[in-house]
Amino acid sequence: MTKWLLRSMTELSSRKWISQITGRFAQSSASRRFIPKFAAMYGIRVEEAEKAMHEYSSLNEFFTRRLKPGMRIIDAAAEAVASPVDALITGAGPIEAGTILNVKGQDYTVDELLNRSPRTENYKHGYYIVLYLSPTDYHRIHTPVTGAVVEREHVPGKVYPVNEFGLRHMKRVLSRNERLITYIRTSAGELAVVKVGAMNVSSIKYVEPRRDQVEKGDELAYFEFGSTVVLLAEDDSFIPREDLKVGLKVRMGERLGVLVDN
């Protein structure tokens, strides 16, 4: 009964207009007074932020804060795929015949995740990593590799939560939620960076100006509340680090694995 009630409440709160209302409040000056409470509630490392708490004009501005220079180390090796975010890994493994298996008990197809893009064919036997950002985390998304942005796509959708409850008990949230997809081509293959919106995320935004040539560690986009990034590597192009598994906490810039040139 409790699970049914929570699911019903979640279905209601997934409506985009409700998420937009909460987003507008977070962008207002009235939300500024909640910044210290928000930071304390989630144990945010405010000493890493580029500005002091009182310098942020709204909760949203604080939430999408940049970090002081040097707070994250970007793995500089040419073959390394760096984590685009601070996150918890909630899914990782080989893609089997176009299917991403057992992300919190649910399977997804690459076809639905990539909105039936013709590029789906390149990822049917590739590798996937699901990276969940909690409210505690730094919420800017960086490029995991150096390369050329060959396509961007916006996929409209719902804003279901992508936390433990949402992924396990809501139906296929990673492929039903709003998404921004960026395809980056490197000399060793292509990566799809799928940014998945979530409940109370008023939007996912690209960092402007958008560039077609990117360096590893460049700012790519940001969430305006907690969400998820799914990384997809093309067939036979990615070798994960030995300890890459569900439950591993990673920081932006940290090596997730390497690309191999076939």
TrEMBL record:
Subcellular location: Cell membrane
Annotated catalytic residues: 86, 142, 227
InterPro entries: PS_Dcarbxylase, PSD-B, PSD_type1_pro
Post-translational modification: Is synthesized initially as an inactive proenzyme. Formation of the active enzyme involves a self-maturation process in which the active site pyruvoyl group is generated from an internal serine residue via an autocatalytic post-translational modification. Two non-identical subunits are generated from the proenzyme in this reaction, and the pyruvate is formed at the N-terminus of the alpha chain, which is derived from the carboxyl end of the proenzyme.
Reaction catalyzed: a 1,2-diacyl-sn-glycero-3-phospho-L-serine + H(+) = a 1,2-diacyl-sn-glycero-3-phosphoethanolamine + CO2
Residue numbers carrying Pyruvic acid (Ser): 227
Pfam families found in the cross-reference section: PS_Dcarbxylase
Cofactor detail note: Binds 1 pyruvoyl group covalently per subunit.
Alphabetized GO MF terms: phosphatidylserine decarboxylase activity
Membrane topology: Peripheral membrane protein
Pathway: Lipid metabolism; Phospholipid metabolism; phosphatidylethanolamine biosynthesis; phosphatidylethanolamine from CDP-diacylglycerol: step 2/2
Predominant localisation class: membrane
Function: Catalyzes the formation of phosphatidylethanolamine (PtdEtn) from phosphatidylserine (PtdSer).
Name used for this protein in its record: Phosphatidylserine decarboxylase proenzyme
Organism of derivation: Paenibacillus xanthanilyticus
Gene of this entry: asd
